[in-house]
Design a protein that fits this description.
Elements lengths: L3 E2 L6 H14 L10 E3 L9 H6 L1 E7 L3 E7 L5 E7 L9 H11 L10 E6 L4 E6 L6 H6 L11 H22 L11 E3 L5 E3 L16 H6 L13 H17 L11 H16 L6 H17 L10 H19 L11
Antiparallel strand pairs: 1-3, 2-6, 3-4, 4-5, 5-7, 6-7, 8-9
Helix pairs in contact: 5-7, 5-10, 7-9, 8-9, 9-10
């Protein structure tokens, strides 16, 4: 993909943004709302000016905005999300600042660190660490030119535990919610650890998208109404959908609406088709079934009947312990396929 300078960005909206940033900075001392604010005591290792001058490429557009990979003049690589102004319409500077200071304090091995944020008169940016190995969506579904196979069950177990660790931390340690969990919002770190991104941004969104089938199929039934905010239990539902996606390699809009027993059978059938008649063996089917049971428990219709994220994490860790006892060791590269 061709790399270009932020200041020469072909997108008219981004060019306008850069011009507005310059106007904020010219002829005055930059106020806090017009500068790059680093979170959680982070050292200021670059300036807004350096960020604007960096070469960049668009990584993708999501529910909350557009994400870019930016390479700064000191060779530091960061991920920059330009938030959708429509999604944040009506959110005051003070509310945004307080929320960023809270979310920017989250630090966990399975969260992509939010390092800094910017807000001007009409524009807002957030800066994350760049994750070199892409998204879980790309790993599970492959690229347009190469269709991926379902992941090996050990990889599913590892990723599920990573995501559950991150969500449990958000829910328990900070009493916050992710609000937009899906495979494109799970990134893979340098050692292929699964890390959550875009966490806690839905809380300040003033609109919800009803036209994006991918997002809607991840969302819990009780949050389909735009007046209902995301909750820890709706995150649990999204986690269940994500696990089914992991186990089957099927995107959420292809998941059937069936009874729990039938869902388990469907999960197994998707592996058999790919594996050519169930070559994974009885033990592998048993372990896949255990993971599918966790996913089914998470994605029940009633929020009250869903487990908490901490309980889900314990379920996954118990499966891991069983495997360790049976096999002696539970490991496997994330990219291994069945």
């Amino acid at each position: 993909m061709d790399k270009i300078m932020f200041n020469n960005w072909p997108d008219v909206g981004y060019t306008t943004f850069c011009q507005k940033v310059k106007r904020v900075q010219e002829g005055m001392q930059v106020a806090k709302s017009g500068s790059l604010v680093f979170c959680a005591g982070e050292p200021q290792v670059y300036t807004l000016d350096q960020l604007m001058r960096g070469s960049a490429e668009m990584l993708g557009k999501g529910t909350m905005g557009t994400t870019y990979k930016a390479v700064l003049d000191n060779r530091l690589i960061v991920s920059v999300k330009r938030l959708d102004a429509v999604k944040l319409a009506g959110v005051t500077k003070e509310v945004f600042e307080r929320h960023m200071e809270s979310v920017g304090g989250l630090r966990h091995p399975n969260l992509v660190p939010l390092r800094a944020y910017f807000q001007g008169k009409e524009e807002r940016l957030i800066v994350y660490d760049y994750q070199p190995n892409g998204s879980l969506f790309s790993l599970v579904h492959g690229s347009k030119s190469a269709r991926a196979k379902p992941l090996h069950w050990t990889s599913c177990l590892k990723i599920a535990e990573d995501v559950a660790q991150g969500l449990s931390y958000i829910h328990q340690a900070w009493r916050l919610v992710h609000g937009n969990l899906k495979s494109s919002n799970v990134l893979l770190g340098s050692e292929f650890e699964a890390c959550l991104t875009d966490y806690c941004l839905a809380a300040i969104s003033t609109t919800t998208s009803s036209s994006d089938p991918d997002t809607n199929n991840h969302r819990a039934p009780e949050t389909q109404n735009s007046t209902h905010q995301a909750t820890p239990k709706s995150d649990v539902y999204s986690f269940g959908v994500l696990m089914i996606e992991l186990l089957t390699g099927k995107p959420p809009f292809e998941h059937p609406s069936v009874r729990p027993n039938d869902m388990n059978s469907w999960v197994r059938s998707t592996r058999e088709v790919v594996g050519g008649g169930g070559n994974e063996g009885n033990e592998d089917h048993k372990r896949l079934g255990m993971l599918a049971e966790v996913a089914i428990a998470c994605s029940v219709t009633s929020p009250e009947q869903r487990p908490t994220m901490w309980q889900v994490l314990k379920m996954i860790q118990e499966i891991k312990e069983v495997v360790v006892v049976e096999v002696g060791e539970c490991h496997g590269p994330v990219v291994e396929s069945s």
